[in-house]
Write a structure and sequence with these properties.
heterotrimer; A mainly alpha (about 300); B alpha/beta (about 425); C mainly alpha (about 325); A: mainly alpha; two-stranded antiparallel sheet; B: about 425 residues; alpha/beta; Rossmann fold; 2 domains; 6-stranded mixed beta sheet; globular
Chain lengths: ~300, ~425, ~325
């Protein structure tokens, strides 16, 4: 275990964290502005990945396919918002959980019906297929570096949107106090649809961009949705800044945990045992982190309300 | 100041309970028994079944990321069934398909239903050893034949061998053993090993080490279903091995090989492993990154025996895609059942005769030579294959040559079953 | 939307009572079900009915904290799982002598142990979680359940991810053989009846009134002088113990335990069953379990695409039958 290894893992943690941010940002906005718990958010991530495969198949170009996939997923999401989600804003969280759980089942099965049960895959675009020397002795995948860059760009873009534009002002107003925002003349229905679509576009971006790295299969959203919720809770509901900080924290803890713990535990026990304990400990560490944050800051790191 | 309605359960948020005195419209005993009766009668009444039908339960992982492999297995099986005219062994055959959802819990329930409601005689199709472990005790107790068409766990080849268990595919560790022999013969000194952390993982690695006598550069057990290998690839890079032996399949294989290639490691070290991580499913997912890797397996599409040629041609015609090794396994299972039931004269009631028929009936496997050992696991030849680009530009496995002829698994001696 | 109206008094029912004859017939059906199934040679459905009864018990325990107590827990499966594993581990120790714990296959020891273990676990988790409320309570209960899940996955000695097979069902004695599905059904039926009766008594007792009062308006109850957190904690622990008993029964039913029993998906399914049945009504749990499990059984028999239909049904129920099935039918008469 040397410095190069740790640095490589730190970069991986950053990359993972920024992808989580894309998911968590949409989730926290939807939760903050509309007070809506969307369990199906992970399914939109999956949909984004599948759309990307199809768009790539149609256009033949990664760079053309990406915006198309985002638009397609956002369109589907906004349709769902108008048909189903809209009726649930006034309902309690439990009803929202149930309905979005049903939505997960439908979306999973729908994707399987359209794209089939086999895994799909995508190639990394040729321009980014190699590796770059980040440091002497460390070559890092160019694609992953691009992902980090993309994540940072989206973070900056979102900050600008939320803090410096009129739409962003409405979003922040809606997040702090929905009734007051309505009273002041904000077109709430349109705003909600747009926010939902924006959240979906962010998810789709994560799905489309991670597609070449991970395999694309039905149900890929389920594993990641829980982590996204943890990030949202740690960061504070409704706060994009919180989502960023929370996501990077979670990404780092998870990746570095998985990198360091097996080695540490192997000093004490057999490899298979060490690896399984390490996997458990790394998985638990995220939840311990969340519990610790909640003890210290019960409303998350950057609460928007109150 | 926090508005109370947001953060605590709102008053009136949950439906008020119906007035408790009158207990609503439907009274204390409730409607549920009536509903259950209605549901049961609706599905249970067609209970009269002709006893001559052969009922086979196909329990596999039809949902989830591995479902593509289950589809291949089922396609192969159904091709065999179709070629037999829907009558395996001369009996009209009913195939009942069920989903284990890749978890032993759901698998056990689905199997319970296959045994108690559908009364299957034979069960096959299961992909995961943890599901097999959950259903095997029931199968053995209820005298249902378990024809394993996939990875065979070591206990079932050894101490827990049972007359009702047959493995028509392979015992888990044998391809690893073959690869280990290759590594030894080639004189490799420093091999890095990657396997998932479920019982078949360390077992497979043990099989590799049984025949590979060189040094191990490192050993990593990843989480089953893990998709991001950045940590492990970093470790491999620092270890600088001669070769990397992987026991991975499905999404894990696709991701690992993709990321391995992206990290530039394909140029630095040789990738080796068991065949199913290097087959069509993975090729489809990974493409060129796989070219040049070596694997050990007991079947390939290019095997030149009559039943394989027929199988490959018919599969292509029927399903419009080339037969994968999972399809070959499914097909062989169907052919075995056909031969066995025929040899037993269609008498499903005499379990001992049926068992003998399974063990000894001549059946022409697509892999060429096949016979069962005393522990009812296969004895066959393992070959070295390499992933190459053929003349048409397709990426396929090419058979290089035999590694372990007529090889039996390592557990036969611990099986106490009399043949 | 954020106004808090004074709680209205429940409307007096105008609906006619369900005819006593039908109530009696339903009870008779429940009593004779296994014999009926044996007569038509479909013993499989006795197992299904037992499963429904077991989940009725577990979902009722969730109802206690959610419907009556107003606490939305997304980690209830942890208690179901810990009860199941108690039985599983004790059985494994008894038959294979791993040596870490004393073992037993007796129901008289294992089942109360399961309830006790789960109750204590719920006490611990509740003590930490009840400091939070709202979405944070949901997330913290989820987090604890996930922690337990990962711990059991890593316990390879007790099966880990693959789970544990039980050699046989618990021993009861007195000539009752739980291995016979019919005997097991009756034992579970008795426990179910006792559970429902107990819940009815609890809900109508002073304790139950306090808990409901806390659900309606915690600040007011505190102002009156009740130590609300302590009441909620006791309620949480009781529900956990009951879920543990349900878990013990489930372990016997399946002869199998695995960490999946504690996954967030399982917690979510329990919530689904309760909401479908009707939160806060005595029969909400049993009806939800019945509908959910029968639907799953019937649908999966008809189509591979059953998850789509299930998802659509859930969405439909939320949109059009918001108070669950009990709520929907309870309204019609009044």
């Amino acid at each position: 275990m040397n410095a190069i290894f740790l640095l490589e893992q730190a970069l991986n943690g950053l990359q993972f964290g920024l992808m989580l941010f894309l998911l968590a940002a949409g989730l926290t906005l939807v939760f903050g502005v509309m007070d809506f718990i969307n369990l199906a958010h992970g399914s939109l991530y999956m949909l984004g990945a599948y759309m990307m495969v199809t768009c790539f198949g149609v256009t033949g170009s990664f760079w053309l396919a990406l915006p198309l996939a985002l638009l397609a997923t956002a369109a589907v999401a906004m349709l769902l918002e108008v048909l189903i989600v809209r009726r649930l804003y006034r309902r309690d969280h439990l009803a929202q959980v149930l309905a979005t759980f049903g939505l997960i089942l439908c979306l999973n099965e729908g994707v399987r019906m359209i794209w089939g049960p086999h895994q799909l895959s995508m190639e990394v675009p040729a321009a980014l297929a190699g590796s770059l020397p980040v440091l002497p002795g460390l070559r890092y995948s160019a694609y992953r570096l691009a992902i980090i860059g993309l994540g940072v760009a989206v973070a900056v873009g979102l900050f600008w949107l939320v803090n410096r534009t009129r739409v962003g002002m409405h979003i922040r107003a809606g997040a702090s106090n929905r009734e007051m925002a309505t009273a002041l003349g904000v077109d709430i229905r349109l705003l909600f649809t747009l926010v939902f679509g924006l959240g979906a576009a962010l998810c789709a971006l994560a799905g489309a961009v991670l597609g070449p790295l991970l395999s694309i299969s039905v149900g890929m959203g389920e594993s990641i949705i829980i982590l996204a919720f943890v990030v949202v809770v740690i960061g504070g509901i409704g706060s994009v800044r919180g989502a960023l900080v929370g996501a990077i924290l979670v990404g780092m803890v998870d990746t570095l945990g998985r990198a360091i713990l097996p080695g540490a535990l192997r000093l004490l026990m057999r490899p298979e045992l060490a690896d399984s304990m390490a996997a458990a400990a790394a998985s638990i560490s995220i939840y311990v982190l969340m519990a610790a944050v909640l003890v210290w800051r019960p409303a998350g790191l950057f609460p928007t309300r109150g | 100041m926090r508005s109370p309605s947001r953060w605590s359960p709102r008053p009136q948020a949950y439906p008020r309970p119906p007035p408790t005195g009158a207990a609503g419209r439907f009274g204390a005993a409730g409607r549920w028994p009536a509903a259950v009766l209605a549901a049961c009668l609706a599905v249970a009444l067609p209970a009269a079944q002709a006893q001559e039908k052969l009922r086979i339960g196909f329990l596999s992982t039809l949902t989830g990321p591995i479902s593509g492999l289950a589809v291949d297995l089922q396609n192969g099986f159904q091709l065999g069934l179709k070629q037999a005219g829907g009558r395996l062994g001369g009996l009209e055959t009913e195939l009942i398909v069920a989903d284990d959802q890749q978890n032993p819990d759901a698998g056990k329930q689905a199997f319970d239903k296959l045994v108690k409601k559908d009364r299957v005689h034979i069960v096959t199709g299961t992909l995961f050893t943890n599901v097999m472990n959950a259903i095997a005790p029931i199968a053995f107790r209820e005298k249902v034949f378990f024809i394993n068409a996939n990875n065979g766990p070591a206990p079932f080849a050894g101490e827990q061998c049972n007359p009702f268990y047959f493995n028509v595919a392979w015992q888990g560790e044998t391809p690893a053993e073959a690869m280990g022999k290759y590594a030894s013969d080639k004189g490799l000194k420093n091999v890095y090993v990657v396997a998932p952390n479920f019982p078949a993982g360390p077992a497979n690695v043990a099989g590799f080490k049984r025949y590979y006598k060189g040094g191990i550069a490192g050993e990593t057990f990843v989480k089953l279903g893990q998709l991001d290998f950045s940590v492990e690839l970093g470790q491999i890079r620092s270890a600088k091995p001669d070769a990397v032996y992987v026991y991975l399949f499905g999404g894990m294989a696709v991701n690992f090989i993709k990321q391995f290639h992206q990290a530039g490691l394909t140029k630095e070290t040789q990738l080796i492993g068991g065949g199913f991580g290097f087959d069509d499913d993975t090729i489809r997912g990974v493409g060129d990154a796989l070219v040049g890797s070596l694997n050990a397996w007991w079947w390939n599409r290019d095997f030149d025996n009559p039943q394989n040629r027929k199988f490959v041609a018919d599969y292509l015609a029927e399903y419009k895609q080339p037969a994968s090794l999972f399809a070959a396994q499914g097909y062989d299972a169907a052919m075995l059942i056909d031969a066995a039931v025929r040899a037993a004269g269609g008498k499903l009631g005499d379990k001992e005769a049926l068992r003998k028929a399974f063990a000894t009936a001549p059946f022409k496997s697509v892999r060429g030579d096949f016979k069962f050992g005393a522990n009812q696991n296969p004895v066959m030849t393992y070959y070295l294959r390499q992933v190459v680009k053929d003349a048409q530009g397709n990426i396929v496995n090419k058979t290089i040559g035999p590694l372990l002829p007529n090889h039996a698994d390592a557990y036969g001696s611990t099986c106490k079953m009399l043949s | 939307m954020s106004t808090t109206p004074l709680p209205a008094t429940p409307a007096a029912p105008a609906a006619p009572r369900w005819p006593a004859a039908l109530t009696a017939a339903s009870a008779l059906l429940a009593l004779l079900f296994p014999l009926l199934m044996q007569a038509i040679d479909q013993p499989f459905y006795t197992g299904l009915a037992t499963r429904i009864l077991i989940f009725a018990i577990i979902v009722s325990s969730l109802n206690l904290i959610l419907g009556y107590g107003g606490m939305v827990s997304f980690g209830h499966a942890a208690f179901l799982g810990s009860g199941a594993y108690t039985v599983g581990i004790l059985s494994l120790e008894a038959t294979k002598q791993i040596g870490l714990l004393p073992g037993t296959e007796s129901a008289w020891i294992a089942w109360p142990a399961a309830a006790l273990a789960s109750g204590l676990l719920a006490l611990a988790i509740g003590a930490l979680s009840l400091r939070t409320r709202g979405i944070y309570f949901i997330m913290i209960t989820l987090a604890f359940a996930q922690m337990l899940y990962y711990i059991f996955v890593s316990l390879k000695v007790y099966g880990g991810d693959d789970g544990l097979n039980l050699a046989s069902r618990s021993h009861v004695g007195f000539g009752i053989d739980l291995g016979d599905d019919r005997h097991f059904y009756y034992v579970v039926l008795v426990l179910f009846a006792v559970t429902l009766f107990g819940m009815h008594r609890l809900v109508h007792s002073r304790f139950g009134r306090v808990i409901e009062g806390i659900r309606e308006n915690e600040a007011r109850m505190q102002a009156i002088g009740y130590a609300t957190t302590r009441y909620k904690l006791v309620c949480f622990a009781l529900a956990g113990a009951l879920a543990g008993l349900g878990g013990a029964l489930l372990a016997n039913q399946n002869l199998f335990v695995s960490p999946n029993m504690m996954s967030w998906f399982q917690s979510g399914s329990l919530l689904m069953m309760l909401i479908v049945g009707g939160v806060g009504s005595l029969w909400g749990g049993p009806i939800g379990a019945l509908v959910f499990l029968v639907l799953e059984e019937v649908l999966s028999g008809y189509t591979q695409r059953w998850q789509f239909v299930m998802g659509a049904a859930l969405i439909g129920i939320v949109l059009f039958a918001p108070r669950g099935i009990v709520g929907a039918f309870g309204r019609r008469g009044s």
